[in-house]
From TrEMBL:
Protein name: Reverse transcriptase domain-containing protein
Organism: Araneus ventricosus
Length: 268
């Protein structure tokens, strides 16, 4: 799977740059004796241009589409993510039908298991890629997410179909899906993408949160013994108080320790 993202101010420049990129990529595929299927290749134009440029691969025009699927997320040419949410609703409707057929509305699997299935399967499927499509959410998207969540809440509670969605959410203590999606989006943007985010007039500055450590960049077999223990600081302390903790356990006894530092001064 190869994806080329090209941005230019005019249609003519966009066509020239896109064709040049495809030509360069074609030289690489020819060199490595790889074949690209033109029938399975698509282009998508995210622009106000009525008719965008046509690009070719091996003298064949690559078909244009209004949307494409990339890493499980459907990207549409208007970037309103309507196609993605509609597709997700269809997929989860089928999932709900299967769960209902197996577990029934109020018998079969017990309530705790149905709730666990929702939290670990359904909710995670819906929130996939939320950092892209759920920041921010429109009113239409919020209503669509609530309609998706409602079916599963009815299955968990076994309540009447006329029960309001808000009542089901309060009874089960399950967060509204559009709020959960925005929460997920803000977390990913701030903690992983390292971007400043805003939710409900609350600003989340990336400088206020520690950055995760990077994974090992070499094979463990070549890791020298003397390099396995390091006394160097692994985290850059943030301004103000920094708390470091450690602990150990022997049989049924547990010990813990902590150290509070401000700048380079040990407070506790």
């Amino acid at each position: 799977l190869r994806t080329l993202v090209i941005s230019e101010p005019t249609g003519a420049k966009l066509k020239a740059t896109a064709q040049a990129a495809l030509t360069k990529f074609q030289h690489w595929t020819d060199k490595h004796q790889l074949k690209v299927s033109t029938e399975k290749s698509t282009t998508i134009l995210i622009s106000r241009l009525v008719s965008g440029p046509r690009v070719k691969w091996d003298n064949q025009i690559i078909k244009r589409s209004t949307s494409l699927k990339y890493l499980g997320v459907i990207i549409d040419n208007k970037l309103n993510w309507a196609d993605h949410l509609i597709n997700m609703k269809t997929k989860l409707t089928h999932l709900h039908q299967k769960i209902t057929r197996i577990a029934g509305t109020n018998r079969g699997l017990n309530k705790d298991l149905r709730r666990r299935l929702y939290k670990t399967v359904t909710e995670r499927m819906i929130l996939h890629g939320a950092a892209a499509w759920a920041y921010p959410l429109s009113a239409r998207q919020s209503r669509l997410l609530n309609s998706i969540q409602r079916k599963f809440l009815l299955n968990i509670t076994g309540a009447y179909s006329t029960t309001p969605t808000a009542a089901l959410q309060v009874i089960e203590g399950i967060l509204q899906l559009h709020i959960k999606a925005e929460q997920e989006a803000v977390y990913v943007r701030t903690a992983r993408l390292r971007k400043t985010s805003n939710y409900n007039n609350i600003n989340f500055n990336l400088n206020n949160y520690e950055e995760g450590t990077t994974s090992t960049k070499f094979h463990p077999a070549i890791f020298q013994l003397e390099d396995r223990i390091s006394l160097k600081k692994q985290f850059l302390p943030v301004p103000g108080l920094n708390i470091f903790m450690d602990g150990s356990k022997i049989e049924d006894k547990t010990g813990s320790a902590f150290c509070v530092m401000e700048e380079d001064t040990t407070k506790y």
